[in-house]
Amino acid sequence: DADVTQTPRNRITKTGKRIMLECSQTKGHDRMYWYRQDPGLGLRLIYYSFDVKDINKGEISDGYSVSRQAQAKFSLSLESAIPNQTALYFCATSVKTKAYNEQFFGPGTRLTVL
Amino acid sequence: QKEVEQNSGPLSVPEGAIASLNCTYSDRGSQSFFWYRQYSGKSPELIMSIYSNGDKEDGRFTAQLNKASQYVSLLIRDSQPSDSATYLCAVNIGSGNTGKLIFGQGTTLQVKP
Predict the structure, then answer these.
(1) Number of CB atoms found within 10 A of residue A26's CB
(2) Would the CB atoms of A99 and B34 count as touching at under 8 Å?
(3) Model confidence over B8-17: pLDDT tens digits?
(4) B101–A50 C-beta distance less than 8 A
């Protein structure tokens, strides 16, 4: 089945460490997104990419960077993790149709920064 | 700041009843709207998309859109305990199909047997 996968699924790390979260998809979608979800704050967009050479900041990009290695792969990096980056991180993909831009989510990565 | 507002709930309904979930949005240029279901600890799952005013039905789910009132709703008929989840409203911001979504904080639905 065409799918969106994320690795790792859970990660505990310490303040100051560099962390990379990876996202791969077999849906053939050209658009990919990274979100974080915090209790009471909902889903917030970190970065998005409409193709390999088109990467854009979202609502809360400070402290994060991304790399679009291929159409199917989009990685999120925390260069120096801090405790308030503890959250649930989701990757999503979409393809533009005439009417919609439906986004489909991966299973998520639960990140804890101590 | 573009906003999407939902009542956080919890909304509690008995099994077999109709659950009505509501969402308002601030961007008048928004063209497409989505409802996601999210079980605790899981990822959001797309259940409905709508872009024309009026109703759109899919099984037990009906999405309703009123662009003039900047209002979108989701009706769940014959609610089941398995429908207990958080429902996220998402709005495509900006005119046209921009590909950027703003999510509401979600409404928690509890369906009691």
Answers:
(1) 12
(2) no
(3) 889 999 999 9
(4) no
